[in-house]
Automatic annotation (TrEMBL):
Gene3D superfamilies: 1.20.140.150. It is found in: Cell junction; Membrane. InterPro entries: P53_induced, PMP22/EMP/MP20/Claudin. Keywords: Cell junction, Membrane, Transmembrane, Transmembrane helix. Belongs to the TMEM47 family. This is Uncharacterized protein. It holds the Pfam family Claudin_2. The chain crosses the membrane at residues 17-36, 101-122, 129-151, 163-190. The keyword Transmembrane applies. It is a multi-pass membrane protein.
Length: 206
């Protein structure tokens, strides 16, 4: 005679946990992007060397224009052969203030959303907080998208030299940060009304 056995089955649906992991990766990407100094770098084989980060731009070699009153004086390259001349990234480049703001503000938003997401994950009755975190992350992702579009467009219009150059890791990681926080936003916004851990019972004949 068959005997009926009731088996408890549980499974995990960790969408929100994956969202938090993506958001943490996005925060790390923000930190790296803001810290790296190679948003733009020139060819190392060129006589004129140049690099630009989110906060400063530096050059070495070539002719350097020095402002004296209203007159620009050009100094020979050999006087600056081993010296890097650095200025703020926003000097003669007002668009960099916008780019900086559109990177720093989303970074702060990402940290805030991470805290909100952790609270919602630990206290399941506060799952509605996921919606708040998701919405502000979408706003943050849009701001970063604007930053990474504005930066190359304006830089090319105000190109400070004629030399081969490329966009470096700092700029690329800013794109990665945007992708991470956008993914986290989507994961926070879907299936908010469902639990992360599911339980059910199944009857088996043995």
């Amino acid at each position: 005679m068959a005997k009926e056995v009731i088996v408890d089955i549980s499974w995990l649906r960790p969408l929100k946990l994956i969202g938090l992991a993506n958001l943490l990766c996005g925060i790390i990407a923000f930190i790296l992007s803001m810290a790296l100094e190679d948003w733009v770098i020139s060819d190392e084989h060129e006589e004129f060397k140049y690099y630009m980060s989110l906060w400063k731009k530096c050059q070495k070699g070539g002719d350097n224009d020095v402002q004296t009153g209203d007159v620009a004086v050009t100094t020979p390259a050999d006087q600056h052969e081993d010296t890097w001349t650095c200025t703020g990234a926003t000097e003669n480049a007002g668009y960099m203030s916008v780019v900086q703001a559109f990177i720093v503000i989303p970074f702060i938003i990402a940290i805030l959303a991470f805290v909100i997401g952790c609270i919602a994950y630990c206290k399941r009755e506060w799952r509605r907080l996921y919606r708040i975190a998701g919405i502000i992350l979408i706003v943050a992702a849009v701001l970063v998208l604007l930053a990474v579009i504005i930066f190359p467009c304006m830089f090319l219009q105000e190109l400070p030299f004629y030399a081969f150059f490329w966009f470096g890791w700092g700029y690329g990681i800013a794109w990665a940060a945007m992708c991470f926080i956008l993914t986290a936003a989507v994961l926070f916004l879907i299936s908010q009304d469902k639990k992360e851990i599911y339980h059910t019972q199944k009857t088996m004949n043995i």
